[in-house]
Specification:
By secondary structure, this protein is an alpha+beta fold. It has one domain. Helices cover about 35% and strands about 20% of the residues. It has a 4-stranded antiparallel β-sheet. Strands 1-2 form a two-stranded antiparallel sheet. β4 (about 140-145) and β5 (about 155-160) form a beta hairpin. α1 runs antiparallel to α2 (about 45-55).
C-alpha cells in the first residue's frame, strides 16, 4: 500500500488487489459495470470507489481516446476530473442512478458509426459531433446505462473506451467543444 505524491492522482492511496484483468470489449465493460452497480447497491463503498477511480482517466489516458492534435481538449477534460473529490464516498457515488435501476446495458459504436449516425441511436447527439472532430478513428466507444428491469431507458454515462489496458470514460466532452 502507498500514497501517490505527484501528478493527477496525488493523495490517493494505492492498495494492491488481486482482481481479474478486464477484457477490452463489451462483455468486459458490462461485467465491470455490473460489479460497480452491485457494489453501489450493497453499500460496498470501497469496491465502488476503486472501480470508479479506475474509470476516470488522467490526461495521458484521455489522449488515447482522442485524435492526434487534441492536446487542449485532453487538458480540458483532465482539468475537470482533477477537481473531483478524493474521498471514497464521493467516488463510490460518482456513477449515480436511482436504486431501482439495477440492470446494466452497454451500447457500442465505432467512431465512424458515431460520425455517420449509423448504429449509434443509443448515444446522445453530441457524440456525433465529437466523433467527427476529436474522437480517435477506428475506436469503439460505449454508452453505459443503468435501467430498471424491463425498461429500455435509464441513467446513461458516455463515451467509455478501452485504452489498451483499462477502461476509461471521456464523458460528455461535447459540452467542452466550441460550436
Amino acid at each position: 500500500m502507498g500514497t501517490l505524491k505527484h501528478g493527477f492522482f496525488s493523495g490517493l492511496t494505492l492498495i494492491a488487489a488481486c482482481t481479474a484483468v478486464p477484457k477490452g470489449d463489451k462483455v468486459g465493460l458490462t461485467s465491470l459495470m455490473k460489479e460497480l452497480r452491485a457494489a453501489q447497491l450493497t453499500g460496498d463503498t470501497a469496491t465502488a470507489a476503486r472501480i470508479t477511480r479506475g474509470l476516470i482517466p488522467n490526461e495521458a489516458r484521455i489522449r488515447l481516446g482522442l485524435r492526434t492534435g487534441n492536446d487542449d481538449m485532453a487538458k480540458a477534460i483532465a482539468s475537470i476530473y482533477a477537481r473531483l473529490p478524493t474521498d471514497d464516498g464521493a467516488w463510490a457515488g460518482a456513477f449515480a442512478a436511482p436504486a431501482g435501476n439495477t440492470e446494466v446495458q452497454v451500447h457500442a459504436a465505432t467512431t465512424e458509426e458515431l460520425a455517420t449516425n449509423a448504429g449509434s441511436g443509443e448515444f446522445p447527439g453530441g457524440a456525433r459531433r465529437v466523433a467527427k472532430a476529436i474522437l480517435k478513428p477506428q475506436t469503439t466507444y460505449y454508452e453505459v446505462e443503468f435501467v430498471k428491469p424491463g425498461h429500455s431507458a435509464g441513467m446513461k454515462y458516455h463515451l467509455f473506451f478501452w485504452d489498451g489496458s483499462a477502461w476509461c470514460m471521456l464523458g460528455p466532452v461535447w459540452r467542452r467543444m466550441k460550436e
